[in-house]
Design a protein that fits this description.
Layout lengths: L29 H24 L1
InterPro entries: DUF5908 (IPR045459)
């Protein structure tokens, strides 16, 4: 008998270490952040379009 998962909950915990020194790799560049946001928006729009087609 197959098992159907109707809900999936993912929880995360982000810990900010106050004692860390600032390094170049710790902060993404503004251009990189914008590119990530644009990619996420594009993927969400594709998902919504696929749901609308059903």
């Amino acid at each position: 008998m197959p098992v159907e998962i109707r809900e999936l909950i993912i929880r995360t915990t982000i810990v900010d270490h106050a004692g860390q020194s600032d390094s170049a790799g710790s902060q993404p560049s503004a251009g990189g952040t914008d590119a990530i946001i644009a990619a996420c928006v594009a993927q969400v729009l594709k998902i919504l379009e696929r749901k609308r087609e059903r």
